[in-house]
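Much of our argument rests on the idea that a fold can be written as discrete symbols. The record that follows shows the chain in one-letter code together with its fold in token form.
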Amino acid sequence: MTSRSVRVVAATVALAALVACTSSQATTTSAPTWPSPVDALPTMDPTAFHDLIAQQKGHPVLVNIWASWCGPCITEAPDLAAAHAKYGGTVRFIGVDAQDDRSGATTFIHEHQLAYPSVFDPSNAIAVSYGLFSPPDTLFFDANGTLVKTFPGQISRDALMSNLQAIAG
């Protein structure tokens, strides 16, 4: 073989090895799973959270971004608990505990009897990825996975229920 042929063969082998390594890494990556139990509070970054929401295609989703120290979050928690009791069979609810600590978050979940799971985002990066900056915030995704409504700040009971009815179909 000529030196040029040897270089071509070596480059081909290297490229094949690179593709094989890249492919095997992609198959070992696991997708985020729906948190369970409700107070598990797995830490998530925006990429994992967006992947989690995308996996819910076929189901409408309500996302509530909250913190245990947030007055408006405390005020809207009973309405969210009641809404979940009414729509939880049709709409998937998930909370994002932002800028908080786990003990405060766990206490909040139990005190307000939130029967849906939350993820933990101490840096608030998930909210910022949606253009939001401080809890509370509520997002509504239709069954196609499209974000159809965003409420920055405390959501009223009427707005909560009417938007749930809209995405529940």
